[in-house]
Specification:
Length: about 160
């Protein structure tokens, strides 16, 4: 019996060791060093296009809260830059948004004409093997299909 336990533990160790490139969650600072802004009109679509986003990753929005916010919206609202029916609203100036599900996600700034001049982007998140084995902790975006408004931030301890 002890022999079989040792063999089973050995096989389990080999399987864990042999897992190809286990993926860990990444934190992406939106806009990199520029942050979430309209100054010099950063191209957030180009920024997002160069990255692979996975379930469990975090989008970190850094901005001046007096001039910007982050709205998570549906595709039609994204295309129309409509900010009145946001799924989620963030406004702390340093917001961590955890990607909770695979698929497309849409982000805009709801201030003035910021969305219309390019302060918006969308991503397509994929499922990774790490996300399947280690789902992220609950966050306000876990109800992404609803019409909840949340104001999580790093200061709240949601990261």
């Amino acid at each position: 019996m002890a022999f079989y336990v040792k063999v089973w533990l050995f096989v389990l160790a080999v399987l864990i060791w042999a897992e190809p490139n286990p993926t860990t969650a990444e934190v992406f600072t939106v806009g990199d060093s520029v942050g979430w802004t309209t100054l010099n009109r950063p191209n957030y679509t180009a920024w997002a296009a160069g990255k692979t986003f996975r379930v469990g990753d975090t989008l970190l929005f850094k901005y001046h809260k007096e001039y910007h916010n982050v709205l998570v919206v549906k595709e039609a609202d994204y295309e129309a830059c409509k900010n009145s029916s946001a799924l989620f609203e963030y406004h702390s100036g340093e917001d961590a948004v955890i990607i909770k599900e695979a698929g497309r996600h849409f982000y805009i700034c709801g201030f003035s004409n910021h969305c219309q001049i390019g302060q918006k982007f969308d991503i397509k998140a994929i499922v990774s093997s790490a996300a399947l084995s280690n789902p992220p902790a609950n966050s306000p975006q876990s109800n992404a299909g609803g019409h909840l408004k949340a104001t999580p931030s790093i200061a709240d301890g949601t990261l």
